[in-house]
Amino acid sequence: MNKQKKFMTGILGAIAVYIAVITATADITRGIGLEEKQPPSENVQVSSNEADTTNLKAEQEHSLEGYNTSLEKVENASAESNNTEITSQPTEVKTINYSFTNKQKSNIFDNPNNGKVMDTLIKATRVEVEEEKDVENQKQTKVKKADGTFEIKVTGQINKWAKIKYQKNLKNKEGWIKAENLNKEFNSVISADLKNIDFSPVEKPNFTENPKKTNVRGIYLTVYSAASDKKMDELIALTKRTPINAFVIDVKDDSGHLLFKTDAEKTYLGENKKYYPIADMEKFMKKLKDNNIYTIARIVSFKDPRYAKKNPDKAIIKRADGTPYTNSDGVIWVSAHDRNLWKYNIDVAKEAAKLGFNEIQFDYVRFPASNGGKLDKQLDYRNVKSETKPETIQKYLKYARKELQPLGVYISADVYGQVGSSADDMGLGQHWETVSNEVDIISPMAYPSHYGNGVYGLSVPDANPYATIYRSTIDGVNRNNNITYPANVRPWLQAFTAKWVKGYIPYGKKEIDAQVKALKDLGINEYLLWSPSNRYGIVEK
Fold first, then answer.
1. 182 in helix, strand or coil?
2. Which domains are delineated in the chain?
3. Is there a contact between 129 and 162 (Cβ–Cβ < 8 Å)?
4. Which residues of 341-351 are buried (b: 16+ CB within 10 A; e: fewer)?
5. What per-residue confidence (pLDDT) applies to 10?
6. pLDDT grade, residue 42 (50/70/90)?
7. What is the DSSP string of 438-495?
8. Burial class (CB in 10 A: 0-12, 13-18, 19+), 93
9. What global pTM score does this model have?
10. Is the model's pLDDT at 175 over the cut of 60?
11. Residue 92 pLDDT > 70
């Protein structure tokens, strides 16, 4: 019995000690919790990119803030456990509050108290809201009394105003705007056919084995030029004497012909041809690399008569008679909705990437010109998924990125030169922010000859190469400010004479230099030169 008593006494004593320890530990823990000050949000540095993401995805705002706070706690705890001295000063965090203009033109004032208009912003321009306040604006009205005399009646109205910061024409600006002219979400201020677009920020890569360049200055080469040793030697020599350092080479051209033999052609068209312009691609690519030439594989996406011939049920047709639709050049277009063609194009691109091309450029990544969409009722686009044009183009580019990025190759897309100046997709499926968000480089085809007389206030844009390039490109630069990770802007420039344009001028070195200067004045140091005949002697004379 005594032994049992001693045993029980020992057990109870041990339990008492355990409880005391747990209680003390809990008290200490609670004490730390009570005494520890919640880290203020100002102690967490938020980059502008993170802030852009937050405001484009408003529903994620609180979770991102919590993430930053938790991350700081983890870093602090790690520093303390390692007894590491932290010498950096706490950095002030700025939670950026973005909104988008919702009027075709919104006036910006120097102050909200009957201030003067100092600027205007087009619809869907992103601005940073710094301050919001209510302002009573008084209005004086002259009122006639019963006795025939007049009195001044003062009435007041409370208006909500926002102080904003924004970028325009390469300048940082600020001013005041009526709060009613702002919306929080980009999707709420754009046209209906863009409502299903995913504007989640797409961060751009920089591959270790293929470092991104921002000074690409290229020329376009047809398959015929690429296949000619003499022509290639001439063009390589040109790169030694001029700023040219890149070749845009047709890998899949406007007719659907391929530069070299591919497995993709066999898979999707059922056969390979007997002859290809380049038989030994390894040798071809080595010569370019040995001469430090940046290589871009041009792949024409949806203008493909060879594919259309094999797949007539995928071609765009006229509703009236079921015949294939063609532009003035007579070439049949395949529907951009065709997922099988997506796979074919991307598989060709993969083979080009594996051969060492630095970049894949998608041209004709659009629907055929339809007079601003006016022909849509007459055409059957084979749209089985009921997608809008820009929605389909975005999904195609998303698919391309998903498949090609693991291969360490950059993605670029050619767009109409007017896309940067147009609020919608021009009936083509090409909307500036949609495309720029998805690709690494966006290349507007800004040929002065392709702008109608009177555009940008220029009587003959073709005769004004500097002004045309400057005006069209700055619109795209401004539009890039609306998204978090925009593509680099690398325009196509005119390296040919457009004799069909009324009031045209001959193009030579002077006109090319004028276009290049326009880009440099906008902070852009890269461009591509387009000459259908591949005659680039005008670069030098």
1. strand
2. 98-189 (no CATH), 194-539 (3.20.20.70)
3. yes
4. bbebbbbbbbb
5. 52
6. very low
7. H-SEEEEE--GGGSPTTGGG-S-GGG-HHHHHHHHHHHHHHHHTTSSSPPEE--EEE-
8. middle
9. 0.80
10. yes
11. no
